[in-house]
Amino acid sequence: MKERKDPTPAEQGPGTSPGGLDDGSAQDGRDHGEGLMASFVRRLRQPIPGAQPRVRFEMPPELEHDATAEPALDESDGPRFGSPGPRMSAQHPLYVGFMGTAGVGVALMLYYIGTNTAQLLLWIVTALFIALGLDPVVRGLEERKVPRPAGVVIAVGVLVAGVAAFFATLIPTIVEQVSQIVRQAPDWIRGFVDSDFFRSLDSQFGVRDKISQELDKFVKNPDAMGGIFGGVVGFGSTVANGVFGTLIVLVLSLYFLGALPAMKRWGYRLAPRSRRPRVEALSEEITRSVGNYVIGQVCVALLNALFAFIVMSILGIPFSVLLAFVVALLAFIPLVGGLIAAVVVILVALTAGWQTAVIYAICYFAYLQFEAYFISPRIMQKAVAVRVLSP
Fold it and tell me: Does 332 map to a domain?
């Protein structure tokens, strides 16, 4: 019998495999197995009935351009760092709370500064008003081709010379009249003690004995005598402080007057550029008006004191020079300054007789009305004439 030999691969056809199976049958078997595996995997991935879906973490979407690339320097398309977002609303609680806290903090800081540096602030404000009052004089000298430094020296020198001459003339008279008051004080006290009014009070209440007892206690009390010594020392320190303050105000006035244009230019730079011309025009008008107001008020006060001195000299009211100086100082107080000066002078005029006091009161109050309706309006109209600026 002949042996049967298996055909070699070369003898097999292209559609057969070594096991005798064709390629189509093998491929169908593999596809069937993969389908079963995929069906099994899908069944595993199906959610369990009643189970909650799991939250998946997802990365944010990437931008179209490369974030690591350097931004372009060309800003023609927009800002370099992007457009800013919307501003926080002024009604937002965070904004309101922050601004309220900042406002309270600034108010407390200003209160602390004001309470601890009140005297220094008073000197600075006084020097600033003096500088504003002398600035029209310096500007007038500048219009006459006088350099501003020379004009400042001339204005301050004239002011100091005038004040020194005024006090040099006034102080001896004031000292003499104060000494006269001290010399006449015992006679006034003696006359009051010997009056019928005091005698009636003494007979009813024993005023003389009580006054003697209080005087003895006061003299024998060391604390009271120490208080007198402390009062003298305090008065001396007050005088020294006043002299030092006068020098400080004079130096600050000289500095403010010389640096006023530079100070104003520095202040104008704080305003926005779009509004800077209007701010400059308003500030120049205000400073000019304040300076002219100071000069006008000085003129009104001098006229008031001059009229009071003339009336007091005619009526024979004592201490007329001292009282005229007091009237000039009180005339700088708006509204009530003239009334206070009138009351002070009338009380002193009563020592010369009630008729003298009444005549002075009539004359001075008539002058106050004339000053209020004629003198002060005309002076202030020329001094504080503010031009209307177009909006």
Answer: yes
